[in-house]
Amino acid sequence: MLPDSQRDSLLASARRAYEHAYAPYSKFRVGAAILLEDGQIFTGCNVENASYGLTNCAERTAVFSAISTLGPERVRIRALAVVNDRQVACSPCGACRQVLSEFGRDAEIYYLGPQGIERSSMRELLPDCFGSDSLT
Ligand code: THU
User: From the alpha carbon of 57, which atom of ligand 1 is closest?
Assistant: First the structure.
């Protein structure tokens, strides 16, 4: 479990990230921040498209940003925070859970629930997930 101060600064990074969101269709701006095992933080926002299905969520943008900067071997996600500009309950979507689990099977996930910030684990959010072990 992250110390409160580290959790709060990860949430603050996520809040700053939604300022960069491109969400002209949903008008729902989302920001995410991931903390890696080595202490680095990467952020992401949602990026929509006129062809709606091409939208990239904030969480996946953050993961892809880390990988494109560091390479996949160094991306081990310890925690993720996700927030939105409407302050409504919103946890990572199914697609993002699958992508997050690839690089952080034991990650802690902080998101806005009905009663405020909630903490969960990737294993709780995506039990029995499909992984690379099935492909070896
Ligand atoms: N969205 C995210 O970025 N992350 C989530 O966890 C949920 C949904 C985005 C996708 C789309 O741009 C908008 O929110 C509405 O679905």
Answer: 3
Atom of ligand 1 at shortest distance to CA of 93? 6
E strand or H helix that includes residue 11: helix 4-17
Residue 28 beta carbon below 6 angstroms from any ligand 1 atom: yes
Instruction: State pLDDT tens for residues 72-127.
Output: 999 999 999 999 999 999 999 999 999 999 999 999 999 999 999 999 999 999 99
Are 25 and 52 contacting, i.e. CB atoms less than 8 angstroms apart?
A: yes
Q: Where are the domains of the chain?
A: 4-128
Q: Is 64 in the pocket of ligand 1 (CB under 6 A)?
A: no
Active site residues: 59
Of 31, 26, 28, whose CA–CA distance to 43 is shortest?
31
Which CATH code is given to the segment(s) 4-128? 3.40.140.10
Verdict on whether the full-model pTM lies above 0.90: yes
d(CA 92, CA 60): 10
Distance, in Å, from the CA atom of 44 to the CA atom of 10, rounded to the nearest integer, reads 12
